[in-house]
Amino acid sequence: MSQSTTQSTTRAAYDAVVTVYAELVRDFLADLPLERAMLAAFAELVRTHDAGPVADLGCGPGQLTAHLHDLGLTTFGVDLSPAMIARARQDHPHLRFDEGTMTALEIGDGVLGGILAHFSTIHTPPAELPVVFAEFHRVLAPGGHLLLGFFAGDDPRPQEFDHKVTLAYRWSPDSLAELLRQAGFVEVGRLRREPREGERQFHQAHLLMRKPPQG
Ligand SMILES: C[S@@+](CC[C@H](N)C(=O)[O-])C[C@H]1O[C@@H](n2cnc3c(N)ncnc32)[C@H](O)[C@@H]1O
């Protein structure tokens, strides 16, 4: 599938599930202390470095954009799906949400202090991820941080799976960290946790990366 076909499929799939999805994730952090800890660490690092606003890329209905705002960050969200953006604006009218794609961000070079990409790169075909990571690197200020959440596996090659919304990929944290290193990032730390009851039986992982101050 071409890049634009994959994105049209993903856009249509998320447009179609917006109401159900927004309800599902509305309070999802409430019983996820490890994720909250990673988000808090990310927010603290971004605040300390004070290099610019934070973009929640692939923000969906914006619940994490709002969480980062509540942690004291200047945030905005970007998503491929117009329905997700409309829902995010409705639920969080005090925040900014833009329609757009991570493969060609309408954001200037080096303007962001941080990027959150929470399970939003999971649908990107592996061969296209270097384009996305190059965009992340371009828009981050030197010293800026990236927090990337994804489904984890042990196979060093990415594994396709039938995610409930549309086709997705699991990555070994080492392989994904290596791809990010190739894009110019250095690793700060990572989280890998067991699936909880009721969740799909995959580990979930977060990589906290940084664009080097001279990068
Ligand atoms: C699994 S949802 C995650 C949403 C939100 N980050 C969360 O954690 O609830 C994936 C989101 O990424 C968005 N997305 C996928 N590919 C994208 C792209 N190339 N550019 C922008 N958004 C994208 C989808 O539209 C969808 O809203």
Automatic annotation (TrEMBL):
UniProt-recorded name of the protein: Ubiquinone/menaquinone biosynthesis C-methylase UbiE
Alphabetical UniProt keywords: Methyltransferase, Transferase, Ubiquinone
GO biological process: methylation
Pfam families hit by this protein: Methyltransf_25
InterPro entries: Methyltransf_25, SAM-dependent_MTases_sf
Domain Methyltransferase: from-to ranges: 54-144
SUPFAM superfamilies: S-adenosyl-L-methionine-dependent methyltransferases
GO molecular function: methyltransferase activity
